[in-house]
Amino acid sequence: MRIAMIGSGYVGLVSGACFADFGHTVVCVDKDPSKIERLNNNIMPIYEPGLDTLVASNVKAGRLSFTTDLAAGIEGAEAVFIAVGTPSRRGDGHADLSYVYAAAREIAQSIKSYVVVVNKSTVPVGTGDEVERIIREERPDADFAVASNPEFLREGAAIGDFKRPDRIVVGTEDDRAREVMTELYRPLFINQSPLLFMGRRSAEVTKYAANAFLATKITFINEMADLCEAVGSNVQDVARGIGMDGRIGSKFLHAGPGYGGSCFPKDTMALIKTAQDYNSPVRIVETVAAVNEERKRRMAQKVIRLAGGDVAGKTVAIIGLTFKPNTDDMRDAPSIAIIDELQKAGATIRAHDPEGTEQAQLVLKDVAYFDTPYEALEGADVAAIVTEWEAFRALDLARIKSLMKTPAIADLRNIYRPSEMAKHGFAYLAVGR
Q1: Pairwise CA distance, residues 247 & 219, whole Å
Q2: At 93, is the pLDDT very low, low, confident or very high (cuts 50, 70, 90)?
Q3: Hey, is 369 helix, strand or coil?
Q4: Which of 43, 55, 88 has its CA nearest to residue 158?
């Protein structure tokens, strides 16, 4: 089948490359000429393990190409995916749908035969209705259907998630669109794809509900971690104890500095705003969002406490900057709020991240960056492990102790054992232990 992917960011690029890898012909379209030029030179705009190899192999095979020309890109396409950004709108927290609607207008002008326009972007309920209205207004003669197909890709594991999904949610009431989407995803499974068809509005709500539930789970275990610290218990034991219950499950029960990234913060806020608009408030999600924002800054207080209650004039090493491992994404990363609080308290920041430095430099000021964690730790009065990259899980503790001015580490991801840190002579604080 022939597919057009409007938007070559995280979702569009990963989805397009994976569709191509299953044998479809995919054209990725983007307004940014420099991004398209880089992609044509196999320079990825994002860090995602395995993506560069996947893109290169499918470009070489002639199944994947890139262009800035939308009309040419969707020529002959049976499905056109809208995979543009939907950031939080400044001032009110609603999802900014201007890019989605602009893409819909451009698509409308280029429709020549029946096509399924698929919303892949994360959008509030009712967006598909508006996309359909825009296209019909622009082109009353066009033969098309609008479907919702939300993505459930985890950054750092997106290729595996696309190729081996738990489920593929498709929202459409159009029989022809259902046939197209079924055939589109057929190569993913030899027997039957886990396609879950539903109404378009239901699919739109499903995406937000899924992210809000996972954000709630993270926030719940973080609050349990605080309780564990207060009463002298271990949150990791508690997480295992509840996670082995099949009704609860073990995933997303890792206590830490709060959630961040491109999805959970903006999607919980967009769900809250949508619910308020429909006079059906989601009080639990409202609380989750508020607690999570507060938590990031409370982690800075944990670091300050470890430094003796004052970091003015002291050096703090931040180990890990991105919101999670295996990505360069700094959007709403806990490290941003933590560093901001520490700098307000007078600290000097030295930092290291395996992949996030370039993106971090766009959002953080007055931070010294280093190529290795050991360089960042040199001369530090206190350190904080903020992101659990695998490279940080077996650091040379004796070397670190010799490098730091004071051997004090706040382990915000519970990577190390308290007994091990004590044995090496570190002052050590974890989360919920």
Answers
A1: 18
A2: confident
A3: strand
A4: 55
Residue with tokens 């595996």: 160
CB neighbour list of residue 110: distance below 8 Å, 6 or more residues apart:
70, 71, 74, 75
> Given this model, what pLDDT does residue 272 score?
96
Give the C-alpha separation, 123 to 93, whole Å: 13
The mean of the pLDDT values for the chain is: 96
CA distances, 193 to each of 17, 128, 172, 180, 187 (Å)? 19, 24, 17, 13, 8
Measured in whole angstroms, the distance separating CA 255 from the mean position of its chain's CA atoms is 18
Q: What is the pTM of this model?
A: 0.93
Strands (DSSP E) contained in 12-154 are 25-29, 64-67, 79-82, 115-119, 144-148
pLDDT (tens digit per residue) in 287-299: 999 999 999 999 9
135, 268, 139: which is closest to 211 by C-alpha? 268
* Alpha-carbon span 214 to 220, nearest angstrom: 10
Instruction: Give the closest residue to 1 by CA, choosing from 27, 17, 25, 22.
Output: 25
Average pLDDT over residues 251-273: 95
Q: What DSSP designation does 362 have?
A: H
What are the angstrom distances between the C-alpha of 83 and each of 80, 97, 126, 221? 9, 11, 17, 32
CB 384 within 8 A of CB 316: yes
Name the burial class of residue 370, with classes exposed (0-12), middle (13-18) and buried (19+) by CB atoms within 10 angstroms of its CB: middle
Per-residue pLDDT, averaged over 14-24, amounts to 97
The DSSP secondary-structure symbol of 388 reads -
Find the helix packing angle between 283-306 and 334-344, rounded to 10°: 50
Q: Which two tokens stand for residue 255?
A: 């206590």
Confidence of residue 249 (pLDDT cuts 50, 70, 90): very high
Q: Which residues neighbour 30 within 8 Å (Cβ) at sequence distance 6 or greater? A: 7, 8, 9, 12, 36, 39, 66, 68
Mean pLDDT (whole number) for 317-328:
97
Catalytic residues: 263
Using an 8 Å Cβ cutoff, are 118 and 148 in contact?
yes
What residues pair up with 88 in beta bridges, in sequence order?
95
**pLDDT tens digits for 374-405?**
999 999 999 999 999 999 999 999 999 999 99
CA distance 135 to 142: 8
| Res 262 pLDDT > 90 | no
Q: Which of 229, 224, 226, 219 is nearest to 240 (CA)?
A: 224
